[in-house]
Amino acid sequence: MQAELTSHFDSKIGELQSTLITMIGSISNLSEQVSLMEQRIIENQDNLTNIETHVKFLEKENSYLREKRLIPHLLGDDNFPAPPVIERAHRSPTTTRPNAKNGPRPILLKFLNAKDKMKILRLSREKGDLLFEGVQVYIYQDYSAALLERRRLFDPIKIKLSEKNIQYSLRYPASLRISIDGKFTSFRCPKDAEVFL
């Protein structure tokens, strides 16, 4: 009887030891996971601090759009009794292009009022060369990627037209207007323009 009890206790103690070893392994695993999470939290806090610092820098860097009244300065203060309201302004992301010119990246502006945008585009075309602190400034309407691709399809034809000294313009959204002897012809399809040449 005593041998049976001893055997029974030994088997139970073995089970308890096995369970205890499993629990110790689980606790160790959880402890490692907690350490990893703490490390990630610290890294995220550092990243958040860096992002906040960068945002403050960009806000300060782009403040000249509002504070210095850049647009009225470029296009004439008399055209803007009140400066246009800029809803959002940011620099475009950098891209690596083989023929990229060195210089500042474009700044994208979103105006609160569409009339302001159209007025600025019209005035920039009328004024021609725009200079800010001795640097040439260009103002363009921002197009979607799909529309830009449609407009790029006309690039080979525009090169040929330039070589032949033929006047042309690329009209919105994507049509090529050619002027020959004072007569204008428009093409919505690059193939049609190619055939015309």
Describe this structure as you would to a colleague:
The chain is an alpha+beta fold. The chain folds into three domains: 1-61; 62-137, L1 transposable element, RRM domain (Alpha-Beta Plaits, 2-Layer Sandwich), CATH 3.30.70.1820; 145-196, L1 transposable element, C-terminal domain (Rec A Protein, domain 2). Helix content is 55%, strand content 17%. The protein contains seven helices and seven strands; from the N terminus they run H-H-H-E-E-H-E-E-H-H-E-E-E-H. The protein has helices spanning 2-61, 64-67, 70-75, 114-127, 145-152, 155-163, 190-196, and strands spanning 86-91, 107-111, 130-132, 135-137, 167-171, 175-180, 183-187. The strands form three sheets. The protein has a three-stranded antiparallel β-sheet with strand order 5-6-7, covered by helices on one side. Strands 1-2 form a two-stranded antiparallel sheet. A two-stranded antiparallel sheet has the order 3-4. A hairpin with a 2-residue loop joins strand 3 and strand 4 (135-137). The longest helix has 60 residues, at 2-61. The protein starts with a helix and ends with a helix. The model has no long low-confidence stretch (mean pLDDT 84). InterPro entries: L1_C, Transposase_22. This is L1 transposable element RRM domain-containing protein.
